[in-house]
């Protein structure tokens, strides 16, 4: 069967899917209206369904709750008003028959005690965090589900945003404004979490696909620079993830099956105090795609994960939340016992790899009074990465050739206090204590002595402390200021950083505003770098135990304008100065940790490196209007670094330019059926690479680079169009969605890089992922 024939089968299924009578279906919209800062419920707020006829409206009860029943399925707009607060409109609230819509709506007190200013709550260029006003925006669950080839993965979805480039389309590692993917921070429910991705390599912030299902996520924030003071230990970006609470009045379920596997979610009431649970389990085998003829690699690949959020009110003013996730992922390959079929040395090995990650958190939140909200949390997390390979001898008998095991675990204690000092002043302060554990083992066969030798066998523990305080000042109805400081200290060697943060937003009028931000940021190195050992004078020593923090100054200036109620343009320019970057201690070296992709560095390093990233970004976005949305983003940037050779060079991630177009159209076939067509097209300058020294590679039997010519070559430009076609059908008590995602729809061979192949003695080119079709079916009930 040809690729075209494979893709045409789902279209026939779509056609067969269009054969039922339409009927009027309804669902319930309910939720809670709360104060944005203190989180206290607001009784007496008006909630109005705007596009209803006649207009339907309700008032929140003494606990801030509201309920609107018999709402027709489709897209709706909801307006919330309350005396002394800014009026808010939520456009495009999607109502399906399969599940109730449950909202938590935070509204902001009006400094001027006036009602003229209308804020659109789902303007996705603004963050949910009111102290993030530059280089930050919210992303919705609908986007992770709707964007072409995003496959419900937040990290893949944000590559549609300005300044964000995929570091490898075979996984979801992202480079933000020319930074290493390691500079990214992941947070959940206000606390740092480990890299929440399957198939993660040691020392990275990305992986094959997210462990977190969109079933669990609520609208969340994504930042790309000059972060608010509460964010620390990051140099490039922040995912600030928020979890959705389960339905606390009725049980609901979701089941999805497709080429990637199965996805099962359940939610419902728990306990006597209107608590709730939400749990999601996924099991996948990419081997199915491989058996269909899709070339996704030489491994047998499987993964599964479980995530949950349990919400338990303990009183009217306090609640306990237990949340967490865990993911198991593994890959296996077996060498074919026929050397005449081997085209690369790798094909002569058996290999086993697994990457396991998990976190469990307990959060206690309480309203101290009408103006203060306290959140305490403890999170236990860890990950383990294991790799083992066997080589076949001339008789095709396997013998152990290499093995490694990396492990990290962490216990975090946090406490954050939000206080509304007045309508104009909000104060947020917090402290985090991190207990860190690490172990690494690495063994390799010495081919000269035929002895299995230990290269690394190290473990350790240390602590880090973070603290912050920031104030939000609404000077008047036009000017908002945020000022704060973040403190980070690694107790292993007492390296620390005191980091001032400042941002401001000024409304020129009711349709345009300017923003500015500055922040000093720092990041602890991967723990393996501190605890890794090397041999010096025949003695194993930790050469980098005293290594300091990497640091950078962020400067951002932005302007955005509403062209109409649904169309917005945004311009940002930025400069980032990086310093104290670890580089090799030897003279005239081009090596810098700023270019690291994965793994740990055990060679002696010093904090003498520099870097700089600067550029301009433009975004034109239409939020869903007349069933059409689009997002056009473009970036021009430079990313440079300097090591001990004192030469300014391009970083690995300096592609210079990136442009993306993401958009979609929904066609209402009748009242209960919606056909969606979504596209995404990405065009980027190629990443930088170092030329291969062929003669030295032949002599050593492995890839050897011209280090003095580091990153002087650029791979060809990157282009990839993606397509998503979906058909959603609402029935009396369920919603059904059939979807086809096609990644790299034109099957372009994008270059990843080059390597030396010892088996043939030639330099070969490695390519990124080809066309991959993913068919799925989902039912919500």
TrEMBL record:
Pfam family, one: CarbopepD_reg_2
Keyword Membrane belongs to the record: yes
Gene Ontology cellular-component annotations: cell outer membrane
Keyword Iron: no
Record membrane topology: Multi-pass membrane protein
Stretch forming the signal peptide: 1-22
Location in or out of the cell: Cell outer membrane
Keywords recorded for this protein, A-Z: Cell outer membrane, Membrane, Receptor, Signal, Transmembrane, Transmembrane beta strand, Transport
One MF annotation (Gene Ontology) recorded for this entry: siderophore uptake transmembrane transporter activity
Gene Ontology BP, a term: siderophore transmembrane transport
Protein name per Swiss-Prot or TrEMBL: TonB-denpendent receptor
Organism the protein comes from: Chryseotalea sanaruensis
